[in-house]
Amino acid sequence: MINTIYYNIKQYLSKIFTTSSLLLQFSFICIGILVMSLLSCSSKKEVEYYEKNVKFTQNLDIEKKIDMASRLVPTPQQLDWQRMELAAFLHFGINTFTDREWGTGTEDPKIFDPKSFDADQCVKTLKDNGFKMILLTAKHHDGFCLWPTKTTSHSVASAQWKNGKGDVVRELKDACDKYNIRFGVYLSPWDRHAKCYGTLEYNSFFIEQLTELLTNYGEIYEVWFDGANGEGPNGKKQQYDWELILSTIRKLQPKAVTAIMGDDVRWVGNESGIGRETEWNATVLTPACYQRATIQNKNLGVKDESEDLGSRKLLEHATELFWYPSEVDVSIRPGWFYHKEEDHKVKSLKELIDIYFKSVGYSSLLLLNIPPDTSGLINKHDQDRLKEFSEYIEETFRNNKINKGEQQLTLKEGSYIEYLLKDNSPINTILIQEDISKGQRIEEFFVEAYINKKWVKVANGTTIGYKRLLRVPEFTSSKMRLTVTKARNTVNISNFGAFYAPPITTEANTKVFNEIDSKDWQIINPVNVSKSIYDGQSVIDWKSIDLSPLVISLSKPTEISGFTYTPVAGDNKSGTIFRYNFYISNDGIEWQKIIGEEEFSNIENNPNTQYVRFKEKYKINFVKLEIISTIDNKEYYSIGKFGLLL
Ligand code: FUL
Q1: Does the beta carbon of 599 sit less than 6 angstroms from any atom of ligand 1?
Q2: Residue 538 shares a structural domain with residue 573
Q3: What pTM was computed for the model?
Q4: What is the 3-state secondary structure (H, E, C) of 313-364?
Q5: The domain containing residue 413 runs over which residues?
C-alpha cells in the first residue's frame, strides 16, 4: 500500500516535470522517503488494546495507568457473553425432592423422580421469554449428578426416574440445540457426598466429572464454579487445583466462559439481584482462581462484595487490571431450589423489573434462577411471572424515541452529542451504551432534555459500560443531549435511547413470616428480646448477649406446623444463626427435640426468611430454638424476625 502511494506520487510528479535530471530524480526519492516515513509514523499511532488483562510496570504514574485501563477490552467470548444480557439458572436436583437448599450428601438417590420432566417445556418457556442461555446445576453441593457419571453411583443412574436410564444434562442440552439457545453447567466443587473430598484424590475425581461434561455433550457455553467450600463427609475441606481445572476447560471447550471461580465472569457479590451503580468491567479484583489473588486482593483491600472495584484511587495502587464483568445471580423465588411453600412467593413483576434495571441496566448480565418443580417442569407460577416480565421488557424497549440513536459516535471529555427525538411522546427511561469492544471509558455524565425552550438536566451518573439504564421522572422533549464530564479517553458511544416504561400496578409480594397473633405468644428467654422481632414492627435489629436459646410460650395449646427465621435487615449480619436444634414442650420443663443439628443452608449469601416446616403438626405450649453456631461463629446471635406457622 505504501509502495503504491509512493509509485502514484512519482507518476504524478513526473507528469508535471517532463525533464528527468538527476537532481529531480533525487528529489523524488527524498519526497517518497518522507511520505513513507510519515505514513509509517501514523500507522504506529494505531491504538494498542489489551485483551482481558493488563499488567502495570512498577512506578507507572496514574495518568498512564488510566490510559492503559481505557484500552483494556474483553475477549470475543466475554463480549458475546455480555451481549446476551439475560440467562436462566436452573437449580434442579436432589434438593428438589427433599425441600432443602443444601443437601447433606446422604440422600437416597432413588428419590430423584421428576415424573413429567420435559426438557422441551423448560427450554421453550425460557427461550420464549427472552433468555439466551440455560445454566444447569449438573451437580450441587450434595454431590448428586444429573448425568450418569462414571465417577460415582450418586447420580441419575441410581434414581427411580426412568429406571436409572435418564440423563437430565443430555435432554436439556438437546432441547437447547433444538431451540437454538446456549447451554452451560454449574458444577459444585464442594461435594458433601464424595468420600475422597478433602484429599488429593478428589481433584482427579473432579477433573473426571468436568471432563465428562465437557466432552460428551457438545458445546458448553459457560462453566460456573461456586465459591462455597465447606466440609466434606470426613470433616475436611478441599484444596482445589484451579490451575488444572481451568486448563482442562481451555483444552476441552476453548470457547467456554468460566464464571465465579473462573476468570471470565465475576460474581456480583450478592444473591439479591443488585449490581453496582458505578460498575467497572475493567477491575482491580484478581480472579480467585489465580494463586496471586489472595495477596493482591488483600493489598488493595478488595473482595467480590466491595462497592468499588475500579476507581482511579484503586488504580493508583493496582499492579494489574482484569476485564472481569459482573454476573448478577438471583432467584425468582426466595430459595434457589423449588419448594412448594414458595409457590406464592415468586417475585412480583415490580421486583423483577427493579432487578432488571439494577443488573442489565448496571452493565451486568442477569442470571435469573427459575427452578424446575418436583414434576420436572417450569412451574405455572413462575411461567406466568416470566411472561409478564418479558412482555413488560418488550413493551418498554420496543420503540426508541431517539432518531438515529444507534449510530457509533466518539466524544471527548467535556463535550456533548445532541440527538433529535422522533416525536413528542412521554419519556421516563434513558439508555446509554458504550462500545466496550474499545474499552470502558466514561466516568461521569449527564443527560439534558430541551423542555420549554430550555435545556434541563434530566439524569446524571457515573459509569456506563456495556449498558446503563436510568429511570427518570416523566418528560416530553424535541431533542436531548448527552454530556460526558469525566472520561478515561475518547469515548465511544454505540447507542442512546429514550423510552417510556409503563407504570407497574402490582406491588411487591408481602411475605408472611408469622401466622400466630403476637398477642398469643411471648418470648420468655432471653428476657430482653425486642417485641418487634415477632409482631412485624419495622424496627428490626435484635442481638442476644450470649447463645442462650430462644424460648417461646404460647397462651394456649396451639397446633403449629413450623417456624420462620429472618436475619436482621441492613448490612451488618453478624450473629446470623446458621446451625440449630428445635424443641417443643407442653410444660416448658420436658422438651422433645423435633429437629436436630440442622442448618439454614446458604443463609450467609442469601439472607432471606427461612421457612422451616415440621414433618407433622404439633399441639404444644412451648417451643425452643437452640443455637449451635452463627455464620461468623459469634457467642451471640441476631434475629430480624421470628414467626410461628400454623
Ligand atoms: C451459592 C450456593 O451455595 C447456593 O446454593 C446456590 O447454588 C447459589 C447460586 O450459589 O453459593
Answers
A1: no
A2: yes
A3: 0.87
A4: HHHHHCCEEEECCEEEEEECCCCCCCCHHHHHHCCCHHHHHHHHHCCCCECC
A5: 409-499
